[in-house]
Design brief:
about 775 residues, alpha+beta, five-stranded antiparallel β-sheet, about 30% helix, about 15% strand
């Protein structure tokens, strides 16, 4: 007894010394995992290889079907839970068999010993077996049986670069290990014994025989009944390996970027929505490619939580000829007029205009920037809602000058347009026409903010269970007014490709076409979804005649029809502070006693600023001559009141320049100096407090600011002074140009009567 105890102590001390000298390589029990990217229902949408180029999907034991674990234990190590890591009887039987065969034909290894060998592979030999036994004891000393079995499940080789039951169950059967049947479990238990020899795709006969031997072992230990084994033996083998899933490859890449990816990433992508959007895109591209438009991108957001349900960065990820791997949904592109709804919403919120307010639609020149309407025509005056629906450029640029480029730029940046990183002066007034580049994803999310009544938050591609954090960006009333405008059905940008016979979904939408005809956008929203569409060429090649209305809008409606065949209607916001006000039909301001025609228009009470009508006014004229008189000239002559309409001088000048009649004040009486004084000049270009940016890549001779002023009929010649120096001369309504010079400048114009106007502007 004493000798046995001493021997036991010596063995224990020796093991402890060896354990300290040769610690187990624990890090090898957790080799790099592949990444499984999941959709919002838990379905795999894309796999990424592990760093060592293996397919390895680690799973926990409770993620493996019980029949699979029972089959493994029955065929590999039926005494796993009772031996200390090494089964001497199995080793002895294996040694005798190898001696009889004259070569190594059996290993006699327990599952614990196999885990040791998988962590530290060595050529088969008696020395290697001894090391395995030592490592197995190290494992058993520190890990539980279930932990060891879990490592085996994840380390076992299953053919080629497929490692572990998680990957094997997918590539052989297209399912997760918790759904494995008895027949499938038996095959996966057999393959690791000789992965090349028992490959079911290349060597089905050998694989089936090996599987059946495993089934027999399961029957022998009671892990399966005879009836279950008979049924399993009749099952066929997989004829080919499953292809890795590739649903939403661009979104998957966004969710799991770089090399250090986690083993599992759950996204918000809805596989059904993604596939419907992709099908709509591929169908529409047949027509688009005949027009020279080679690719498209679609983004679909759930308005309730801003989750990205679909993101197709291109029509075909594998279409290298059309740059399919480039994610056009996140690439910066010029959105054209797609930003206009947010300018109008900001103007509504500031009280500057209402939807029925009248805006000037006449040519405007600001330095070297000369924005023109898409159709090349002008309407003189137009309602704000009509200007937005017709996507008129001149009124939008004028409105931006009134709102201020800085507040508009700040609104867009706060609204998540992350690519607008340059100073406001870099974009200037061109910002509202697409002078800055944005991504389709960010822009679609900004439209979602419009749909949510001005509450803004970031889009989400990860299903992390967090509620979206939102903050107010715009007022609900301003958003409701814009939504009402851009949801009108009868509108000029309703493309011919959107067949009314098929039914246009009830959505609010807007299109945009980039500078140079390179990109076409269409964005819209219903009560449930926000959808963004881009079409164009990924390499930036222009397409003659491309437009958001003709090329992008039809695809937008294709997507809405596919996702909401019965329609979901438009967002509804309760408790809005909206009302109607009676205004003068000609001025859209508060009516005076001479405003005989009046209309009602939508306003935000307490916000929309209405002034007394400036168009209708009464003047005194000489009863005999009809000429205007005033002041001391009234004495000694018969006079009468005359009602006149006086429109903005800039509008009147434009009417007259086109040969159109323009109402105005009666001519002043030449013998009445006070009446002759008329109206002094008013500078219309440049705008007050405007900031101009000098471009280093453009010749200085082409970088000029336009000088233009309007005045009464008696103004005569206009003289221009900048910073006290004479710089130009012009006539009323004529535009002359002055070369830009850096600095802050004070500009003064003086007419022939000595009346003047002044403003300040800056050049950077």
């Amino acid at each position: 007894m004493g000798l046995a105890l001493a021997l036991l102590l010596i063995c224990g001390a020796s093991f402890a010394a060896l354990d300290a000298l040769f610690p187990f390589p624990w890090e090898r029990l957790a080799p790099p995992a592949s990444t499984v990217v999941l959709g919002n229902r838990g379905e795999p949408i894309r796999f990424f290889l592990a760093r060592d180029q293996a397919w390895r999907f680690p799973v926990a034991l409770d993620e493996v079907s019980p029949i699979c674990l029972d089959t493994l234990l029955a065929s590999e190590d039926r005494y796993f839970f009772s031996h200390p890591g090494v089964n001497p009887l199995s080793i002895l039987q294996a040694a005798l068999g190898n001696i009889q065969a004259g070569r190594v034909v059996r290993g006699g290894s327990t599952i614990t010993m196999q885990v040791a060998r998988l962590a530290e592979p060595k050529p088969r030999s008696y020395w290697a077996k001894a090391v395995e036994c030592f490592r197995a004891l190290q494992l058993e000393l520190r890990l539980s049986k279930r932990e060891i079995l879990n490592h085996y499940v994840n380390l076992v080789p299953c053919g080629g670069n497929i490692v572990g039951l998680g990957a094997a169950s997918w590539f052989y059967f297209g399912k997760t290990p918790d759904k494995l049947s008895l027949a499938e479990s038996a095959l996966l238990a057999a393959i690791p014994r000789a992965p090349g020899r028992y490959n079911p795709v290349k060597r089905p006969e050998a694989a089936q025989a090996a599987r059946d031997r495993v089934l027999a072992a399961a029957l022998a230990v009671g892990a399966a009944t005879a009836e279950e084994v008979e049924h399993a033996s009749a099952q066929g083998l997989p004829e080919r390996l499953r292809r890795p899933p590739l649903v939403g490859p661009h979104l998957a890449q966004m969710a799991a970027p770089g090399r250090d990816r986690p083993a599992r990433v759950r996204t918000t992508l809805d596989s059904r929505v993604q596939e419907l959007a992709r099908q709509a895109m591929r169908s529409r591209l047949v027509e688009l490619r005949a027009q020279g438009v080679e690719n498209a991108s679609v983004v679909v957001l759930d308005l309730a939580n801003r989750e990205v349900l679909a993101l197709a960065g291109s029509a075909d990820f594998f279409d290298d000829a059309h740059h399919g791997k480039v994610n056009a949904a996140t690439a910066p592109r010029s959105p054209g007029s797609a930003l206009k709804p947010f300018l109008y919403a900001l103007a509504f919120e500031k009280g500057l205009i209402a939807p029925e307010s009248l805006l000037l639609d006449i040519p405007i020149a600001t330095g070297t920037y000369d924005p023109r309407n898409y159709d090349g025509s002008y309407r003189g005056r137009v309602e704000a809602q009509e200007a937005l629906i017709h996507s008129l450029n001149a009124p939008a640029v004028r409105l931006l000058a009134d709102v201020g480029a800085e507040p508009f730029h700040r609104l867009l940046v706060d609204g998540g347009l992350r690519t607008l990183t340059r100073p406001t002066a870099h974009y200037g007034l061109s910002l509202v026409l697409g002078g800055g580049e944005v991504s389709l994803l960010d822009l679609t999310n900004l439209y979602a903010t419009l749909a949510r009544g001005g509450m803004h938050g970031p889009p989400s591609i990860l299903a992390d269970g967090r509620s979206p954090r939102e903050a107010r960006l715009l007022g609900p009333e301003a958003c409701a007014l814009v939504t009402g405008i851009i949801s009108r059905l009868e509108r000029p940008d309703l493309a011919a490709g959107v067949e009314k016979a098929r039914g246009v979904p009830a959505v609010a939408w807007k299109t945009g076409t980039s500078f140079g005809h390179r990109d076409a956008f269409a964005l819209g929203f219903s009560a449930r979804l926000a959808v963004g569409v881009w079409v164009g060429n990924v390499d930036g090649r222009p397409v003659k005649g491309i437009s958001g209305a003709r090329q992008a809008a039809p695809l937008l409606f294709d997507v809405f029809r596919a996702l909401e065949p019965d329609g979901m209607g438009l967002p509804r916001t309760e408790g809005l502070n909206l009302a109607e006000a009676e205004v003068c039909a000609l001025s859209r301001q508060l009516p005076g006693p001479d405003c005989d025609k009046r209309v009602r228009m939508s306003v935000i009470p307490g916000v929309t600023r209405l002034e007394p009508c400036p168009v209708h006014r009464r003047v005194l004229v000489d009863a005999a001559t009809g000429l205007r008189v005033t002041g001391e000239c009234l004495t000694g002559r018969e006079v009468r009141q005359e009602l006149v309409t006086q429109f903005p001088a800039e509008l009147t000048a434009w009417w007259r320049s086109g040969g159109m009649p323009a109402p105005g004040l009666p001519e002043p009486s030449p013998d009445c100096p006070e009446a002759m004084a008329g109206l002094g000049p008013r500078i219309t270009s440049p705008k007050a407090r405007m900031v101009y940016q000098i471009r280093p890549d453009s010749p200085s001779g082409f970088q000029r600011v336009g000088l233009c002023a309007q005045a009464g009929a008696d103004a005569g010649a206009l003289t221009w002074f900048q910073d006290g120096a004479h710089v130009a001369a012009s006539q009323v309504g004529e535009t002359v140009f002055l070369e830009l010079t850096p600095g802050a400048h004070r500009l003064v114009v003086v007419d022939a009567q000595g009346r003047s106007d002044a403003l300040r502007y800056e050049v950077q």
